[in-house]
Design goal:
311 residues, mainly alpha, rod-shaped
Length: 311
């Protein structure tokens, strides 16, 4: 319209063009009014539908905005719940650890009484395991418990002196119990020979077939020549039966003592003690054997003198 009016030569042409455009606008308005009158119902329905759609879109936007806000709120609450749950989980672990420590403390308090029972019944391996475990606990997880300081000192002192008892028991079985078996067999042979009435002279002592400690150890499983692995395995597999007499099998008992000393880490002290007491113990064996042989010979002489006397 502007281009048409600006290109006109004079005012009359512009007025003419303006009039023509006004007529076209009026005709367009009339046509539009007629169309509106004709399609009033459809137009009203379309406007209402468009208005409804617009309202629904607006409501949907508001709802989505509310959902987003709710999701953000839930996310914050879940973070808070996660922190709370983590805190409760950590507290549960702490309480469980405290309960375990209390149970361990309760068991350790009973160690001295159980230790005395095991020592009295000579179940030294169980006593050693119990003592070592208790001392490790008292000097480890329970080190900060001030109420156990007296018990810690007591058990530590017992652990320091435990190997002395085991070494004494080892020497007793190594030197005394083994030679006692020889003496018992000699006495049994002496009684049998005194009961036999034979004119042939009976030798006082037959030493060729005596089961000496050396022969006894050579036939045992602990000193099989060329089989050190079996010896180590046997020592490792030794277990203590609390129902049986621990001293019934001397070899197993000495293995238990050595295993207990190894748990106490006192093997070097044990070897040194055996070396230091070796000469003394061997002299005691000779002394006991001499006394025993003299007693047996004196008793044999008395029996023979009584048999040779007339009634």
């Amino acid at each position: 319209v502007l281009r048409t009016l600006s290109t006109s030569d004079d005012v009359e042409d512009r007025e003419t063009e303006k009039g023509r455009l006004e007529e076209a606008y009026e005709k367009c308005d009339r046509d539009l009014d007629e169309l509106i009158v004709q399609h009033y119902t459809e137009l009203t329905t379309a406007i209402r539908t468009y208005q409804s759609i617009t309202e629904r879109i607006t409501n949907s936007r508001n709802k989505i905005k509310q959902v987003k806000e709710n999701l953000l709120s839930c996310k914050m609450l879940l973070h808070c719940k996660r922190d709370e749950l983590r805190k409760l989980w950590i507290e549960g672990i702490e309480h469980k650890h405290v309960l375990n420590l209390l149970d361990e403390i309760e068991n350790i308090k009973q160690v001295p009484q159980k230790l005395e029972q095991c020592m009295a019944s000579k179940h030294y391996l169980n006593a050693t395991d119990m003592l070592v475990s208790a001392v490790d606990s008292l000097e480890g997880p329970l080190l900060q418990v001030e109420g156990l300081s007296d018990l810690r000192l007591e058990l530590h002192s017992k652990k320091m002196n435990m190997h002395l008892v085991l070494i004494d028991e080892l020497h007793r079985h190594l030197y005394i119990k083994s030679t006692n078996r020889v003496g018992q067999r000699n006495k049994e042979k002496g009684r049998i020979s005194s009961l036999v009435k034979d004119a042939s002279p009976v030798p006082l002592m037959d030493v060729t077939n005596l089961s000496t400690p050396r022969k006894f150890l050579e036939t045992s499983q602990f000193s099989t020549p060329g089989n050190s692995s079996m010896r180590e395995t046997s020592l490792l597999e030794i277990k203590e039966d609390t129902e049986l007499d621990p001293e019934e099998n001397s070899n197993v008992f000495m293995g238990i003592l050595i295993k207990g000393l190894a748990k106490l880490k006192k093997i070097p002290e044990t070897v040194k003690a055996i070396q230091d007491r070796l000469e003394q113990e061997l002299k005691q064996i000779v002394k006991r054997s001499t006394t025993q042989v003299a007693d047996n010979g004196y008793q044999r002489g008395e029996n023979l003198s009584q048999e040779n006397q007339p009634r």
